[in-house]
Amino acid sequence: MGKKSDKKIETVTLQLLSMCGRNQVLLAKAMDVQDEFKRVITVDGIVDNQNHLMLNKVLHATRAMDTGMRTFLELYNAVPDSHSLGAYLMQLKRGKLNKFRQLNQGIAKRIQSGVVDKRNIYLHTSGRFPTKQEAEQLADDTLAYLQTIINLAESI
Amino acid sequence: MDTKGIFANIEDKFEHSVIGPVNPFTIDNPDVLIYNTHQLVGLYIPLAKELENPDLLLRRVHMSRLALRSSISSVLLLSEDTPEQFYNNDAITSSFDRVHFFDGDNDLISYISDDIKPVRRVDKRLRGEVMKRFWGAMDYMDIHSYLRNDYMNIRCRPEIATVASWSRPGYMRRSTYTSYDNSYLITSKRKTKQSFKEGYEDIMSFATMFNYSLSDGYLKRNPYASDIFMYLNLEEPDIIFNRGINLRTMLFLGYLPCTVGSVEEVKFLNDQYYSFRKERKYL
User: Fold this and answer.
1) What span, in angstroms and rounded, lies between the C-alpha atoms of A79 and A29?
2) Do A7 and B21 touch (CB under 8 A)?
3) Domains along chain B?
4) Which residues contact residue B82 at a Cβ distance below 8 angstroms, ignoring those fewer than 6 apart?
5) The complex's ipTM?
6) B244–chain A Cβ distance below 8 A for any pair
7) What is the pTM for the complete model shown?
């Protein structure tokens, strides 16, 4: 991951930020999403142990995804009661008339298995660590998923 | 125009901007994305090759629109040296929300600070379709791993395919690397090791114009395109794996990367691919 990844993070998160308009609370959240995604890269220079490094990448990428999805739903007053990626996915699958389109079921299932389930495995089970390939794939895919979600917007 | 100076000035004057943005799906992007507190603005400055072949610029603006959020205002920035036939071309001017001639840094900053409303939005059905196709193909590859097959050359002799140019009405484009056979669109193995951008520029433009046509600045899906199975008959798997963005761009354009040895294999793959997408609710 290098300069191109940095630009990809900025490209995706600037779009989220631009949707927040003058809402300072949501603007700050969009900035947090950018900072969190950037930690997936900067952690390379901080953590030496390979297992811990990859675990950190999964942690930062999924935290960024979590706040990114929540910010999107907050923009449309569609945040579910439960604070979880799974609940956000359910809400996105439902859509909101004239606000944002429904997330396709196939894509939602892919996000569930590729991000939510993997996060649950690695962040909630002692002794389990993602491989380098798994962690980097997940980090790259989370950005593409967030872009897919941003693209659902019809208004704003 | 001093583009480096323009970029530095934009970065200096706007708190939120990205010079050289990169989207997760295609290599087509604006030159700069700027949030001016009213709108998100995508600024496009034509490259020399785009001035020569405007289809490349049209592909860039429409594919980046398809890949990015719907309400981005697209601004085309031209210099006084821009050839007249370029800015008098309706297909070009109607593809942007605004066209502006560079008249100094201060003028440009003032211009892009305006509330430029995005008018040329992409049809929401097209946006939905392209995402389903992209993620469906990613899912399929994860499970069937067709990229890992041994490379074999296709044995049939396909026809050279042609598509209608977007910028030159009545002119047909052809691709050196893309051919058509029995309702399959095939991209062949390249003979030389060109860089990704150079080698695939031709294929990307062809595939874009195969999928879509342009009508008064709006993208329309070509009805025949969805019935044709598109696949890449590429180099050895290792080369493909080392080019992530290459792969994603081609998936975004509808190609399924795989290497097959006979027409029967292509037919089998076609059937399996569509059944898979249907089962997984990507259709």
Assistant:
1) 14
2) yes
3) 3-112 (3.40.50), 124-279 (no CATH)
4) B46, B51, B101
5) 0.94
6) yes
7) 0.93
